[in-house]
Amino acid sequence: MTTYKTPPVPHDPTTKIVLQTSAGKIDIARFQKLFVSVYFACAAGALANILSAFGNDGESAGPLYQLIWGFLFVLSIPLIISANVKFVSRRELIALSFGLYVLLSTFMTSNPASNFAYASSFLFNLGFAIACARVLGLRTTFKILCKTLNILVAISIFLYFAGFKNAIYFDAIDRSSIIGLVPAQGIFSHKIYAGLYSALSLALNLTLFSRAKRLYLCAMSLALILLSGSSIGLLAGLSVLFCAILLPQVFKKTYGAIIATVVTLLIVISGTIAFMHIDVVFSVLGRDLSLTGRTKLWEIGASYIGERPIFGWGYGGIFDDSAFFLRRFSAFEYYRAPHFHNGLIQICAENGALGLLLFSAIGVAFLRNCRRALSLVHPPTAYLPVMIGVVFVIGLSVMNIGSRYNELMTIVFFIVAVAGKRQIAK
Description:
The two termini are 23 Å apart. By secondary structure, this protein is mainly α. It has 16 helices and 2 strands. Residues 218-359 form the O-antigen ligase-related domain.
Protein backbone atom coordinates (compact mmCIF):
# COMPACT_ATOMS: atom_id res chain seq x y z
CA MET A 1 0.00 0.00 0.00
CA THR A 2 1.40 3.38 -1.01
CA THR A 3 1.98 5.91 1.77
CA TYR A 4 1.69 9.60 0.98
CA LYS A 5 3.97 11.76 3.11
CA THR A 6 2.06 15.01 3.05
CA PRO A 7 3.76 17.86 4.88
CA PRO A 8 1.64 20.19 7.00
CA VAL A 9 -0.18 22.68 4.80
CA PRO A 10 0.27 26.28 5.88
CA HIS A 11 -2.58 28.71 6.29
CA ASP A 12 -3.77 29.92 2.89
CA PRO A 13 -3.36 33.70 2.91
CA THR A 14 -6.32 34.09 0.55
CA THR A 15 -8.86 32.47 2.87
CA LYS A 16 -11.24 34.46 5.05
CA ILE A 17 -9.73 37.78 4.01
CA VAL A 18 -12.58 40.27 3.77
CA LEU A 19 -12.32 43.96 2.95
CA GLN A 20 -14.97 46.12 4.60
CA THR A 21 -16.11 49.04 2.40
CA SER A 22 -19.04 51.44 2.37
CA ALA A 23 -20.61 49.26 -0.33
CA GLY A 24 -20.28 46.12 1.77
CA LYS A 25 -17.83 43.31 2.20
CA ILE A 26 -15.44 42.23 -0.56
CA ASP A 27 -14.07 38.69 -0.55
CA ILE A 28 -10.40 39.14 -1.46
CA ALA A 29 -9.88 35.43 -2.09
CA ARG A 30 -12.72 35.33 -4.61
CA PHE A 31 -11.40 38.43 -6.36
CA GLN A 32 -7.90 36.93 -6.58
CA LYS A 33 -9.22 33.71 -8.10
CA LEU A 34 -11.33 35.65 -10.60
CA PHE A 35 -8.30 37.73 -11.57
CA VAL A 36 -6.16 34.60 -12.03
CA SER A 37 -8.89 33.12 -14.25
CA VAL A 38 -9.03 36.25 -16.43
CA TYR A 39 -5.21 36.28 -16.64
CA PHE A 40 -5.22 32.64 -17.79
CA ALA A 41 -7.91 33.36 -20.40
CA CYS A 42 -5.95 36.29 -21.84
CA ALA A 43 -2.76 34.20 -21.92
CA ALA A 44 -4.66 31.49 -23.80
CA GLY A 45 -5.26 33.97 -26.63
CA ALA A 46 -8.88 34.93 -25.89
CA LEU A 47 -7.99 38.61 -25.59
CA ALA A 48 -6.13 38.70 -28.91
CA ASN A 49 -8.95 36.82 -30.66
CA ILE A 50 -11.68 39.10 -29.34
CA LEU A 51 -9.80 42.31 -30.14
CA SER A 52 -8.85 41.12 -33.63
CA ALA A 53 -12.56 41.09 -34.50
CA PHE A 54 -12.54 44.91 -34.30
CA GLY A 55 -9.70 45.58 -36.72
CA ASN A 56 -7.95 44.38 -39.84
CA ASP A 57 -6.15 41.24 -38.64
CA GLY A 58 -6.00 42.81 -35.19
CA GLU A 59 -3.66 45.63 -36.21
CA SER A 60 -5.91 48.46 -34.99
CA ALA A 61 -6.48 46.58 -31.73
CA GLY A 62 -2.73 46.49 -30.94
CA PRO A 63 -2.60 49.52 -28.60
CA LEU A 64 -5.73 48.35 -26.76
CA TYR A 65 -4.23 44.86 -26.40
CA GLN A 66 -1.08 46.31 -24.85
CA LEU A 67 -3.12 48.58 -22.58
CA ILE A 68 -5.20 45.69 -21.23
CA TRP A 69 -2.11 43.56 -20.60
CA GLY A 70 -0.49 46.51 -18.85
CA PHE A 71 -3.56 46.78 -16.64
CA LEU A 72 -3.31 43.04 -15.86
CA PHE A 73 0.33 43.47 -14.89
CA VAL A 74 -0.58 46.28 -12.51
CA LEU A 75 -3.35 44.16 -10.97
CA SER A 76 -0.93 41.26 -10.54
CA ILE A 77 1.29 43.34 -8.23
CA PRO A 78 -1.01 42.93 -5.16
CA LEU A 79 -1.07 39.17 -5.81
CA ILE A 80 2.72 39.10 -5.96
CA ILE A 81 2.97 41.19 -2.78
CA SER A 82 0.49 38.89 -0.99
CA ALA A 83 2.92 36.01 -1.55
CA ASN A 84 4.79 37.44 1.48
CA VAL A 85 8.23 36.70 0.06
CA LYS A 86 10.65 36.54 2.99
CA PHE A 87 13.10 34.42 1.04
CA VAL A 88 13.57 33.26 -2.53
CA SER A 89 13.92 29.55 -3.14
CA ARG A 90 16.53 28.13 -5.47
CA ARG A 91 13.84 27.27 -8.04
CA GLU A 92 12.45 30.79 -7.97
CA LEU A 93 15.93 32.29 -8.16
CA ILE A 94 16.74 30.27 -11.28
CA ALA A 95 13.44 31.27 -12.91
CA LEU A 96 13.96 34.96 -12.11
CA SER A 97 17.58 34.78 -13.28
CA PHE A 98 16.37 33.42 -16.60
CA GLY A 99 13.83 36.25 -16.86
CA LEU A 100 16.42 38.90 -16.04
CA TYR A 101 18.87 37.40 -18.52
CA VAL A 102 16.17 37.53 -21.20
CA LEU A 103 15.47 41.15 -20.28
CA LEU A 104 19.13 42.20 -20.51
CA SER A 105 19.60 40.36 -23.80
CA THR A 106 17.22 42.78 -25.53
CA PHE A 107 19.95 45.44 -25.53
CA MET A 108 21.81 43.35 -28.14
CA THR A 109 18.92 43.56 -30.59
CA SER A 110 18.29 46.07 -33.38
CA ASN A 111 15.05 47.20 -31.73
CA PRO A 112 15.78 47.19 -27.97
CA ALA A 113 12.83 49.39 -26.94
CA SER A 114 10.03 47.10 -28.15
CA ASN A 115 11.91 43.91 -27.29
CA PHE A 116 12.55 45.23 -23.78
CA ALA A 117 8.78 45.69 -23.40
CA TYR A 118 8.17 42.10 -24.53
CA ALA A 119 10.83 40.77 -22.16
CA SER A 120 9.33 42.84 -19.32
CA SER A 121 6.01 41.14 -20.02
CA PHE A 122 7.72 37.76 -19.74
CA LEU A 123 9.27 38.81 -16.41
CA PHE A 124 5.83 39.86 -15.12
CA ASN A 125 4.53 36.44 -16.21
CA LEU A 126 7.22 34.80 -14.08
CA GLY A 127 6.23 36.92 -11.08
CA PHE A 128 2.61 35.91 -11.62
CA ALA A 129 3.59 32.22 -11.82
CA ILE A 130 5.58 32.43 -8.57
CA ALA A 131 2.69 34.24 -6.84
CA CYS A 132 0.17 31.60 -7.99
CA ALA A 133 2.36 28.80 -6.64
CA ARG A 134 3.01 30.57 -3.33
CA VAL A 135 -0.43 32.08 -2.61
CA LEU A 136 -2.84 29.54 -4.11
CA GLY A 137 -0.85 26.32 -4.27
CA LEU A 138 -0.91 23.93 -7.22
CA ARG A 139 -4.28 22.29 -6.61
CA THR A 140 -6.24 25.56 -6.33
CA THR A 141 -4.36 27.03 -9.30
CA PHE A 142 -5.10 23.95 -11.38
CA LYS A 143 -8.80 24.10 -10.47
CA ILE A 144 -8.97 27.72 -11.62
CA LEU A 145 -7.12 26.85 -14.81
CA CYS A 146 -9.39 23.86 -15.44
CA LYS A 147 -12.61 25.88 -15.09
CA THR A 148 -11.18 28.65 -17.27
CA LEU A 149 -10.16 26.30 -20.08
CA ASN A 150 -13.46 24.41 -19.96
CA ILE A 151 -15.34 27.69 -20.41
CA LEU A 152 -13.06 28.69 -23.31
CA VAL A 153 -13.41 25.29 -24.97
CA ALA A 154 -17.22 25.39 -24.67
CA ILE A 155 -17.34 28.93 -26.08
CA SER A 156 -15.00 27.91 -28.90
CA ILE A 157 -17.19 25.01 -29.99
CA PHE A 158 -20.32 27.19 -29.86
CA LEU A 159 -18.74 30.03 -31.86
CA TYR A 160 -17.37 27.59 -34.44
CA PHE A 161 -20.73 25.96 -35.19
CA ALA A 162 -22.45 29.35 -35.03
CA GLY A 163 -20.19 30.40 -37.91
CA PHE A 164 -18.30 33.25 -36.24
CA LYS A 165 -15.42 34.30 -38.49
CA ASN A 166 -12.78 34.49 -35.75
CA ALA A 167 -13.62 30.98 -34.54
CA ILE A 168 -12.73 29.49 -37.93
CA TYR A 169 -9.08 29.09 -38.85
CA PHE A 170 -7.97 30.31 -42.26
CA ASP A 171 -5.46 27.81 -43.63
CA ALA A 172 -3.11 29.30 -46.23
CA ILE A 173 -2.76 25.96 -48.02
CA ASP A 174 -6.42 24.97 -47.63
CA ARG A 175 -6.10 21.93 -45.37
CA SER A 176 -9.12 20.45 -43.59
CA SER A 177 -9.19 18.92 -40.12
CA ILE A 178 -8.71 15.20 -39.62
CA ILE A 179 -12.52 14.77 -39.60
CA GLY A 180 -12.87 16.61 -42.91
CA LEU A 181 -14.17 19.96 -41.63
CA VAL A 182 -12.76 23.46 -41.84
CA PRO A 183 -10.25 23.81 -38.96
CA ALA A 184 -11.41 25.59 -35.81
CA GLN A 185 -9.41 27.94 -33.63
CA GLY A 186 -12.37 28.92 -31.49
CA ILE A 187 -11.67 31.76 -29.12
CA PHE A 188 -7.96 30.96 -29.12
CA SER A 189 -5.35 32.72 -31.25
CA HIS A 190 -4.46 29.78 -33.52
CA LYS A 191 -5.70 26.28 -34.29
CA ILE A 192 -2.50 24.79 -32.84
CA TYR A 193 -3.15 26.54 -29.53
CA ALA A 194 -6.80 25.43 -29.68
CA GLY A 195 -5.62 21.83 -29.94
CA LEU A 196 -2.79 22.16 -27.42
CA TYR A 197 -4.84 23.94 -24.74
CA SER A 198 -7.69 21.46 -25.27
CA ALA A 199 -5.20 18.68 -24.54
CA LEU A 200 -4.21 20.55 -21.38
CA SER A 201 -7.89 20.83 -20.38
CA LEU A 202 -8.23 17.09 -21.05
CA ALA A 203 -5.42 16.38 -18.56
CA LEU A 204 -7.01 18.67 -15.96
CA ASN A 205 -10.47 17.12 -16.39
CA LEU A 206 -9.13 13.58 -16.10
CA THR A 207 -7.36 14.28 -12.81
CA LEU A 208 -9.48 16.87 -10.99
CA PHE A 209 -13.09 15.80 -11.55
CA SER A 210 -15.16 12.85 -10.44
CA ARG A 211 -16.34 10.30 -12.97
CA ALA A 212 -19.75 11.95 -13.27
CA LYS A 213 -18.32 15.23 -14.60
CA ARG A 214 -15.22 13.78 -16.20
CA LEU A 215 -16.98 12.08 -19.11
CA TYR A 216 -18.70 15.02 -20.78
CA LEU A 217 -15.90 17.50 -20.01
CA CYS A 218 -13.29 15.19 -21.54
CA ALA A 219 -15.56 14.61 -24.53
CA MET A 220 -15.77 18.38 -25.00
CA SER A 221 -11.96 18.71 -24.91
CA LEU A 222 -11.52 15.87 -27.39
CA ALA A 223 -14.15 17.42 -29.69
CA LEU A 224 -12.21 20.68 -30.01
CA ILE A 225 -8.95 18.79 -30.56
CA LEU A 226 -10.54 17.05 -33.56
CA LEU A 227 -12.22 20.22 -34.81
CA SER A 228 -8.98 22.19 -34.63
CA GLY A 229 -7.23 19.91 -37.12
CA SER A 230 -4.03 20.34 -35.11
CA SER A 231 -1.84 17.25 -35.35
CA ILE A 232 0.12 18.54 -32.36
CA GLY A 233 -3.09 18.86 -30.35
CA LEU A 234 -4.09 15.36 -31.41
CA LEU A 235 -0.70 13.94 -30.40
CA ALA A 236 -0.86 15.76 -27.05
CA GLY A 237 -4.42 14.57 -26.41
CA LEU A 238 -3.57 10.94 -27.19
CA SER A 239 -0.47 11.20 -24.98
CA VAL A 240 -2.59 12.50 -22.09
CA LEU A 241 -4.99 9.56 -22.49
CA PHE A 242 -2.02 7.21 -22.62
CA CYS A 243 -0.63 8.68 -19.38
CA ALA A 244 -4.04 8.39 -17.70
CA ILE A 245 -4.10 4.67 -18.51
CA LEU A 246 -0.45 3.84 -17.92
CA LEU A 247 0.55 5.86 -14.83
CA PRO A 248 -1.87 4.21 -12.37
CA GLN A 249 -0.65 0.80 -13.53
CA VAL A 250 3.04 1.66 -13.32
CA PHE A 251 2.73 2.54 -9.63
CA LYS A 252 1.08 -0.74 -8.74
CA LYS A 253 3.89 -2.80 -7.28
CA THR A 254 2.66 -6.16 -8.59
CA TYR A 255 2.20 -5.53 -12.29
CA GLY A 256 3.70 -2.10 -12.84
CA ALA A 257 7.06 -3.20 -14.27
CA ILE A 258 5.44 -5.79 -16.54
CA ILE A 259 2.86 -3.37 -17.91
CA ALA A 260 5.46 -0.66 -18.44
CA THR A 261 7.68 -3.10 -20.36
CA VAL A 262 4.82 -4.32 -22.57
CA VAL A 263 3.63 -0.78 -23.31
CA THR A 264 7.18 0.35 -24.13
CA LEU A 265 7.58 -2.53 -26.59
CA LEU A 266 4.25 -1.66 -28.22
CA ILE A 267 5.33 1.96 -28.60
CA VAL A 268 8.66 0.93 -30.16
CA ILE A 269 6.98 -1.50 -32.57
CA SER A 270 4.20 0.91 -33.60
CA GLY A 271 6.72 3.76 -33.88
CA THR A 272 8.91 1.65 -36.15
CA ILE A 273 5.96 0.76 -38.38
CA ALA A 274 4.87 4.40 -38.53
CA PHE A 275 8.40 5.49 -39.46
CA MET A 276 8.53 2.92 -42.28
CA HIS A 277 5.31 4.43 -43.67
CA ILE A 278 5.96 8.02 -42.63
CA ASP A 279 4.65 9.46 -45.89
CA VAL A 280 1.26 7.77 -45.34
CA VAL A 281 1.08 9.00 -41.71
CA PHE A 282 1.88 12.56 -42.72
CA SER A 283 -0.66 12.42 -45.55
CA VAL A 284 -3.42 11.37 -43.13
CA LEU A 285 -2.49 14.28 -40.84
CA GLY A 286 -2.43 16.71 -43.78
CA ARG A 287 1.32 17.34 -43.51
CA ASP A 288 4.34 16.97 -45.76
CA LEU A 289 7.77 15.67 -44.79
CA SER A 290 8.97 19.21 -44.03
CA LEU A 291 6.19 19.56 -41.41
CA THR A 292 4.74 22.47 -43.40
CA GLY A 293 8.10 24.16 -43.65
CA ARG A 294 9.13 23.72 -40.02
CA THR A 295 12.22 21.66 -40.80
CA LYS A 296 13.42 24.49 -43.06
CA LEU A 297 12.92 26.92 -40.19
CA TRP A 298 14.90 24.64 -37.88
CA GLU A 299 17.78 24.57 -40.35
CA ILE A 300 18.07 28.32 -40.46
CA GLY A 301 17.64 28.44 -36.69
CA ALA A 302 20.65 26.17 -36.36
CA SER A 303 22.67 28.53 -38.56
CA TYR A 304 21.78 31.46 -36.30
CA ILE A 305 22.86 29.44 -33.26
CA GLY A 306 26.17 28.62 -34.92
CA GLU A 307 26.97 32.30 -35.47
CA ARG A 308 26.38 33.39 -31.85
CA PRO A 309 26.44 30.24 -29.73
CA ILE A 310 27.18 31.74 -26.29
CA PHE A 311 24.93 34.78 -25.84
CA GLY A 312 22.64 34.49 -28.87
CA TRP A 313 20.99 37.32 -30.80
CA GLY A 314 18.92 38.66 -27.92
CA TYR A 315 15.26 38.21 -27.04
CA GLY A 316 13.30 39.07 -30.18
CA GLY A 317 16.55 39.94 -31.93
CA ILE A 318 16.07 37.73 -34.98
CA PHE A 319 12.49 38.27 -36.06
CA ASP A 320 12.36 41.98 -35.20
CA ASP A 321 14.17 42.59 -38.51
CA SER A 322 11.91 40.77 -40.95
CA ALA A 323 13.71 42.00 -44.06
CA PHE A 324 17.05 40.68 -42.77
CA PHE A 325 15.49 37.33 -41.87
CA LEU A 326 13.76 36.96 -45.23
CA ARG A 327 17.04 37.63 -47.04
CA ARG A 328 18.54 34.77 -45.05
CA PHE A 329 15.60 32.51 -45.79
CA SER A 330 14.01 33.68 -49.04
CA ALA A 331 13.03 30.11 -49.96
CA PHE A 332 10.44 29.88 -47.20
CA GLU A 333 7.18 29.38 -49.10
CA TYR A 334 4.42 28.85 -46.55
CA TYR A 335 3.97 32.09 -44.62
CA ARG A 336 5.84 34.92 -42.98
CA ALA A 337 7.42 33.03 -40.11
CA PRO A 338 7.05 34.78 -36.71
CA HIS A 339 9.43 32.38 -34.94
CA PHE A 340 11.35 29.11 -35.44
CA HIS A 341 8.40 26.87 -34.47
CA ASN A 342 10.55 25.16 -31.84
CA GLY A 343 10.95 26.45 -28.30
CA LEU A 344 14.45 25.10 -27.68
CA ILE A 345 15.80 26.40 -30.99
CA GLN A 346 14.20 29.78 -30.23
CA ILE A 347 15.86 29.94 -26.80
CA CYS A 348 19.24 28.83 -28.16
CA ALA A 349 19.15 31.30 -31.05
CA GLU A 350 17.97 34.27 -28.98
CA ASN A 351 19.72 33.62 -25.66
CA GLY A 352 22.55 31.26 -26.54
CA ALA A 353 24.05 28.48 -24.46
CA LEU A 354 23.72 30.51 -21.25
CA GLY A 355 19.98 30.93 -21.75
CA LEU A 356 19.59 27.24 -22.58
CA LEU A 357 21.53 26.30 -19.44
CA LEU A 358 19.21 28.35 -17.22
CA PHE A 359 16.13 26.99 -18.97
CA SER A 360 17.44 23.43 -18.56
CA ALA A 361 17.86 24.04 -14.83
CA ILE A 362 14.21 25.10 -14.68
CA GLY A 363 13.32 21.90 -16.54
CA VAL A 364 15.16 19.84 -13.90
CA ALA A 365 13.15 21.63 -11.18
CA PHE A 366 9.96 20.78 -13.08
CA LEU A 367 10.90 17.08 -13.22
CA ARG A 368 11.73 17.05 -9.51
CA ASN A 369 8.32 18.50 -8.72
CA CYS A 370 6.68 15.84 -10.87
CA ARG A 371 8.40 13.24 -8.70
CA ARG A 372 7.39 15.08 -5.53
CA ALA A 373 3.75 15.19 -6.63
CA LEU A 374 3.74 11.43 -7.07
CA SER A 375 4.76 10.99 -3.42
CA LEU A 376 2.93 13.93 -1.79
CA VAL A 377 -0.43 13.97 -3.58
CA HIS A 378 -3.12 11.33 -3.84
CA PRO A 379 -3.91 10.00 -7.32
CA PRO A 380 -5.20 10.84 -9.85
CA THR A 381 -4.21 14.47 -9.12
CA ALA A 382 -0.65 13.24 -8.50
CA TYR A 383 -0.33 12.44 -12.21
CA LEU A 384 -1.27 15.93 -13.39
CA PRO A 385 2.24 17.53 -13.36
CA VAL A 386 3.51 14.62 -15.48
CA MET A 387 0.67 15.10 -17.98
CA ILE A 388 1.34 18.85 -18.08
CA GLY A 389 4.99 18.09 -18.78
CA VAL A 390 4.05 15.80 -21.66
CA VAL A 391 1.79 18.44 -23.24
CA PHE A 392 4.47 21.10 -22.71
CA VAL A 393 7.23 19.05 -24.38
CA ILE A 394 5.02 18.27 -27.37
CA GLY A 395 4.14 21.94 -27.74
CA LEU A 396 7.78 22.96 -27.25
CA SER A 397 8.81 20.81 -30.21
CA VAL A 398 6.82 22.82 -32.77
CA MET A 399 5.82 26.13 -31.17
CA ASN A 400 7.55 29.11 -29.60
CA ILE A 401 6.79 28.32 -25.97
CA GLY A 402 9.08 28.15 -22.97
CA SER A 403 10.21 31.77 -23.15
CA ARG A 404 7.23 33.27 -24.93
CA TYR A 405 5.64 36.25 -23.17
CA ASN A 406 1.91 36.19 -22.28
CA GLU A 407 1.57 32.55 -23.32
CA LEU A 408 -0.44 30.11 -21.18
CA MET A 409 1.57 26.90 -21.54
CA THR A 410 4.78 28.73 -20.60
CA ILE A 411 3.13 30.22 -17.50
CA VAL A 412 1.75 26.83 -16.39
CA PHE A 413 5.18 25.24 -16.87
CA PHE A 414 6.78 27.82 -14.58
CA ILE A 415 4.02 27.50 -11.96
CA VAL A 416 4.80 23.80 -11.60
CA ALA A 417 8.57 24.33 -11.76
CA VAL A 418 8.80 26.97 -8.97
CA ALA A 419 6.39 25.29 -6.53
CA GLY A 420 7.77 24.03 -3.21
CA LYS A 421 6.68 20.94 -1.27
CA ARG A 422 3.97 22.81 0.64
CA GLN A 423 2.57 24.37 -2.54
CA ILE A 424 2.50 20.97 -4.24
CA ALA A 425 0.57 19.45 -1.32
CA LYS A 426 -1.73 22.49 -0.90
